[in-house]
Design a protein that fits this description.
Layout (H helix, E strand, L loop, with lengths): L2 H10 L18 H12 L8 H22 L3 E2 L2 E2 L1 H5 L1 H20 L4 H25 L12 H26 L4 H28 L2 H4 L5 H4 L5 H7 L7 H7 L3 H10 L2 H21 L5 H16 L3
Antiparallel strand pairs: 1-2
Helix pairs in contact: 1-5, 2-3, 2-7, 2-15, 3-5, 3-6, 3-7, 6-7, 7-8, 8-14, 8-15, 11-13, 11-14, 14-15
The protein binds geranylgeranyl diphosphate (GRG).
The site of geranylgeranyl diphosphate has 17 residues, from helix 3, helix 6 and helix 7.
Protein name: Polyprenyl synthetase family protein
GO molecular function: metal ion binding; prenyltransferase activity
Pfam families: polyprenyl_synt (PF00348)
């Protein structure tokens, strides 16, 4: 990469400070790399067969976070200033573009390159679709025929978050030599996991302990986000007083209490559990190497448990 662009990319991975001095900041949980390596192992291959897939999805993940932070105007990520805050918006867009190009190049050079690039580009189309719907949700009303329904949320979350999780596992399987049915099953499992992950994130955004989540208390309610617990509560016949409370955002604690009273919290928990069960059912649909399948199940558990 161009050295300046490379520095921004390295900064986004937590490898350096602004100016290039080495750093050991958080580079994220590494969930997608783990899924790619386990995908390869689940096909009976060695984990390193999945590494080009792990690298490519992590590059795309970093790219999408970088651009997402610009779109949302978020100033911190993983406990440090976002790339656009540290380097400026134009340079940050460019760094994202470079990460994207490197992701495609990585897969194009891998065995099964054309098929792998195709899996990745399908996931990218879905990512854009999910992000577009999420941006549009902010412009929609709380009530009436134009309101966002829980089904639309599911589709958004599957695209925005599930597509890349599914792609990670599917790429690993493809690179590990798995048959098409297994590649497809791992993709499905990742997609369900993505919806569960987003719903859990929503629950934590309202009821999570800020010292654990690192997010401000009731942040999503202050920002008037269309999260799953809110949408489920709005579907209740007794939801009348909720919409004005959400719109004013002046008393998020009262809104959180009403959402819970209207069943939004329990509906979201039930949804997360349903999605986890569907992810596990997808894994059970095809023959997978037993130890890797067990680790995939543990990873799913770890991701959705996150202190609920
Ligand atoms: C990729 C072509 C293309 C376009 C990008 C900006 C955009 C379109 C999409 C945004 C997608 C996005 C930011 C989804 C959120 C995904 C998500 C759950 C992020 C958090 O993932 P973690 O918790 O993060 O795995 P860490 O920090 O652990 O890596």
């Amino acid at each position: 990469m161009h050295p300046w662009v490379g520095e921004m990319a390295a900064y986004s991975f937590g490898w350096c400070e602004v100016g290039g001095a080495p750093a050991a900041a958080s580079g994220g949980k590494g969930v997608r790399q783990a899924l790619a390596v386990l995908g390869a192992e689940s096909a009976g291959a060695r984990g390193h067969a999945g590494v080009p897939g792990a690298v490519a999805v992590e590059l795309v993940h970093a790219f999408s976070l970088l651009h997402d932070d610009i779109m949302d105007g978020d100033t911190t990520r993983r406990g440090r200033p976002t790339v656009w805050q540290a380097y400026g918006t134009g340079p940050a867009v460019l760094a994202g573009d470079a990460l994207f190009a490197l992701a495609v190049e990585t897969l194009a050079m891998a065995p099964a390159g054309p098929q792998a690039v195709r899996l990745l580009s399908e996931a990218l189309q879905d990512l854009v679709r999910g992000q577009a719907d999420d941006l549009l949700f902010a412009t929609r009303p709380w009530t009436g025929p134009e309101r966002v329904r829980p089904d639309e949320y599911r589709a958004m979350a599957e695209h925005k978050t599930g597509s890349l999780l599914g792609c990670a596992a599917a790429l690993g399987a493809l690179l590990g030599g798995a048959p098409p049915a297994s590649v497809a099953a791992l993709d499905r499992a990742g997609r369900h996991l993505g919806v569960a992950f987003q719903v859990v994130d929503d629950l934590l955004g309202i009821w999570g302990d800020p010292t654990v989540t690192g997010k401000p208390v009731h942040g999503d309610l202050r920002e008037r986000k269309k999260t799953f617990p809110v949408l489920a509560a709005l579907d209740s016949p007794a939801a009348g007083p909720l919409a004005p409370l959400l719109e004013s955002a002046a008393d998020p604690a009262a809104a959180a209490a009403l959402i819970e009273e209207l069943g939004g919290r329990s509906a979201a928990l039930a949804e997360a559990r349903r999605q986890v069960a569907a992810a596990e059912a997808a894994l059970a649909d095809v023959p997978l190497e037993a130890r890797a399948a067990g680790e995939l199940r543990s990873l799913i558990d770890f991701l959705v448990r996150r202190d609920l």
